[in-house]
Amino acid sequence: MNANISSATIILSKAEAKAAGKTTSAEFAELNELRAAYPTFRIVIRASKSKDSMKGLDTNYMERYIKAHDDAVNTILKEFYALRGLDENGAKKELAQAVSYGELKMWFLATYPEVEKMNETVNAILEKAKAKRMAAKQAA
After folding, report:
1. What does the alpha-carbon distance between residue 61 and residue 108 come to, in Å, rounded to a whole number?
2. Phi, psi (rounded to 5 degrees) for 123
3. Residues 6 or more apart from 106 whose CB is under 8 A from it?
4. How do strand 9-12 and strand 42-45 relate by DSSP bridges?
5. Continuous H helices in 2-112
6. Which positions ≥6 away from 28 have C-beta within 8 Å?
7. pLDDT at 17
8. What does the pLDDT average to over 10-37?
9. Domain boundaries, the chain
10. I want to staple 98 with a disulfide (CB 3.0 to 4.6 A). Which of 56, 85, 122, 137 is the partner?
């Protein structure tokens, strides 16, 4: 939590804002001190900077991609099913251990690095479009 003099705002993270909602918390006391020191400042909750990495890359996409790019004996598809705790035909095995989504994603991107490159290309195109749009807005 801090006060930004140049923008006349008191900036809180989402977690700080939630904690400041409790009158007995340290964040509540700190927010009141800042409000007393800067009564004209407005309060802003800072948006988290989450990185949307590989949006849409779910297990269904992975399976379809593997089926389209695997060899004739489905070697990689069998590995994929094993990692998901499935048998060779994709049916759930009883008491089978499956890896987490993060581990599965890491394995998939290591096996098919071109998928990550496709994502980077799409992101670059979108960034150019955003920059063009912002320039057009500023020009208007």
Report:
1. 11
2. -60, -40
3. none
4. parallel
5. 14-20, 26-37, 59-69, 75-83, 101-111
6. 19, 20, 21, 22
7. 92
8. 93
9. 2-45, 59-139
10. 85
Angle between helices 75-83 and 101-111 (to 10 degrees): 160
**Residue 78 in tokens:** 């069998």
pTM passes above 0.70: no
Torsion of CA 33, 34, 37, 39, to 10 degrees: -120
DSSP 86: B
**Contact assessment for residue 117 and residue 110, using Cβ atoms and an 8 Å cutoff:** no
pLDDT at 123: 82
DSSP assigned state of 55: T
Q: How far apart are the first and last CA of the chain?
A: 36
pLDDT of 49-69, one tens digit each? 666 567 788 999 999 999 999
Which residue type occupies 118?
M
CA distance 23 to 39: 19
Residue 54 CB neighbour total at 10 angstroms: 17
Q: What does the alpha-carbon distance between residue 128 and residue 133 come to, in Å, rounded to a whole number?
A: 9
